[in-house]
Design a protein that fits this description.
Length: about 375
């Protein structure tokens, strides 16, 4: 099904963040509600700057409680071991059967650095350069097992074809990873990578590595300019710009009635707040805003953060999404089973299988890795 105005169907995602929730079970109901609405994925933020549950662990708990919706935790690339991060994200892809994503972020404060005691805080541009290297080595490690590397032949006792495991031998500015990964290649090949591309230092990482870029802007013209910049930069990196989805990020307060959007909100665009661009109004007017931005090619869809998670998510699914489905702008069912399929993204080919990098094949141990 194609949208009436000629563009592809919208992509919609929602944040599950709950400031006072420490029990993973409290996220199950909202995730199932978002899945009932057909949303592409849900996100769960995480940071070392404040207490809270580990986002990746929480979404691993949600994997068996959901069937189709994508699960995207924030996992910082600062102070964490690249080898362990990629293995954890790959594991989430396995336990969710191909629905995992990874929102890359950095930790910029001295307080966060003191939690680990390894180094001092660094400027954002340096941390995003490191994030770029970690995104690169993660892709190589996900490819370090070819898809048919596992043999599992009980008769001969062979578990793996060692010629189809590969050392990545990646040396970054702050780390070295030999590989291969300890986790077989994920079901999606590469779990979906998400980057908030609002700020400059993160934008090049998004253009080079992200499957989904989030932009927190208050108007369609600004969003369109950022989307164009990201797509042009992706092309410069040799990517097909159509392999990058750009979603507008809005905080939404849908209230408790069918009231019209407040002045400064609605179809004219939301307004900036301390939490980011804020829409305050009813579900129908939100559908109008989403329709207008998408039709003008400002964004490929939206990532929405409810002010009151349960209330606003329910009104989003039962109100806004229902309106968009009625207009033929949003799907009524999932087109496939993986997050890449929801987003209309191809499964990446394995770089080692394509190049036949025999020099990287593992000659000895069946599995292993170091970082």
């Amino acid at each position: 099904m194609t949208a009436p105005h000629g563009r592809g169907l919208l992509h919609l995602a929602a944040a599950l963040d709950q400031q006072t929730a420490f029990d993973a079970a409290s996220y199950v109901g909202p995730a199932q509600l978002a899945e009932r609405g057909g949303l592409d994925f849900v996100t769960l933020g995480d940071t070392f700057a404040r207490p809270g549950p580990d986002a990746l662990a929480v979404l691993s708990r949600l994997a068996p409680a959901t069937r189709r919706i994508g699960l995207v935790p924030t996992v910082t690339t600062t102070h964490t071991e690249p080898f362990h991060v990629q293995a954890a994200v790959a594991t989430l892809d396995w336990v969710s059967r191909g629905r995992a994503g990874w929102q890359l972020d950095v930790s910029t404060t001295e307080g966060e650095a003191r939690l680990f005691g390894r180094r001092h805080a660094a400027p954002a541009d340096a941390l995003w350069r490191e994030a770029r290297e970690i995104a690169e080595v993660a892709a190589r490690l996900w490819d370090s097992w070819e898809d048919d590397a596992e043999i599992r032949d009980e008769a001969t006792g062979r578990f793996i074809d060692r010629e189809k495991l590969h050392h990545v031998d990646f040396r970054g500015a702050t780390f070295f990873v030999k590989g291969p990964s300890i986790v077989p290649r994920p079901p999606q090949g590469h779990p979906v990578r998400v980057v908030d591309a609002t700020e400059g230092p993160a934008r090049r990482v998004a253009a080079r590595y992200a499957d989904v870029a989030l932009v927190r802007v208050a108007g369609p013209a600004q969003a369109r300019a950022v989307r164009t910049e990201l797509r042009d930069a992706a092309a410069e990196f040799g990517r097909n710009p159509d392999s990058l989805r750009v979603l507008g990020s809005l905080v939404v307060d849908l209230g408790d009635g069918e009231r019209a959007a407040e002045p400064g909100h609605g179809g004219g665009g939301p307004r900036q707040s301390a939490q980011g661009p804020l829409y305050r109004g009813g579900p129908v007017d939100l559908a109008e805003l989403i329709t207008a931005w998408h039709a003008s090619e400002a964004v490929d869809g939206f990532h929405l953060t409810p002010v009151e998670p349960r209330r606003d998510l329910e009104r989003l699914v039962n109100g806004t999404v229902a309106v968009l489905q009625h207009r033929g702008l949003f799907r009524a069912f999932y087109p496939g089973s993986t997050l890449r399929e929801h987003l209309g993204l191809a499964r990446p080919t394995n770089q080692y299988a394509v190049t036949g990098a025999d020099a990287g094949a593992v000659p000895g141990a069946v599995t292993g890795g170091a970082s």
